[in-house]
Specification:
218 residues, globular
């Protein structure tokens, strides 16, 4: 299944016309692009559920983020996000479980996984697991196929050991993160290529051991 070119084409128009008047005048373009993106996400959910049972009961509605921005506390008053995105994890888009993320944005397309800004209790649990099982975690993230496609952990880090942890822990850098995000960037041309859907599923399969490690026993 291909991602229809109408999805990124709409977003490119929105980048330069991010105002309510244009959006309302072109609502049909938005609704068409939204529906095509959601079809793509539905297909991803079906495939992910074949190897990760935690996502099998999810709907697209559970996972997809709204395009309307919350302007209450933002200096940027543009009313719309310039991307479509979905987070596929137990509980859907607001989940605190480690999961799978698809993000479509001009020049910033991402297939990702892990934990993005987890709540304190979740972060504490994950840090404790890495602290007590570091070799398992390192084996996952240093696997050659994983490392090639997800070469680093993205996320803000503490400058020193988290409170309650030994500052001499040999893998201290692994528990200093506040997020455990793993990104694979897709260029605009590949995004609408014949092989992108299959590649996205293969990338999610690589992320499954990581997500299982974070979620198992939780």
């Amino acid at each position: 299944m291909n991602l229809d070119k109408k999805v990124p084409d709409f977003l490119k128009l929105l980048v330069v016309n991010n105002n309510r008047e244009w959006f309302n005048d072109n609502k049909d373009l938005f609704l068409e692009a939204k529906a095509l993106f959601e079809d793509f996400i539905q297909a991803q959910i079906v495939e992910i559920s074949k190897f990760d049972s935690q996502v099998k009961d999810l709907s697209v509605k559970d996972c997809s983020f709204r395009i309307y921005r919350d302007l209450r506390f933002s200096k940027d008053k543009t009313p719309y996000k310039i991307h479509f995105s979905a987070y596929m994890a137990r509980g859907g888009r607001k989940s605190q479980w480690s999961g799978y993320y698809t993000h479509v944005e001009p020049d910033m397309n991402i297939i990702a996984g892990g934990l993005h800004h987890p709540e304190k209790s979740v972060l504490d649990r994950v840090r404790r697991k890495i602290y007590t099982q570091p070799e398992t975690f390192k084996k996952i993230i240093n696997n050659s196929a994983f490392k090639t496609n997800f070469p680093k952990i993205y996320g803000e880090q503490l400058k020193s050991a988290p409170r309650g942890y030994d500052k001499n822990f040999k893998d201290l850098y692994l528990i200093r993160f506040k997020s455990y995000d793993f990104f694979h960037y897709i260029d605009d041309e590949e995004l609408v290529s014949d092989g992108f859907f299959e590649k996205s599923i293969q990338l999610f399969k690589l992320l499954y051991p990581l997500n299982n490690y974070f979620n198992l026993g939780s």
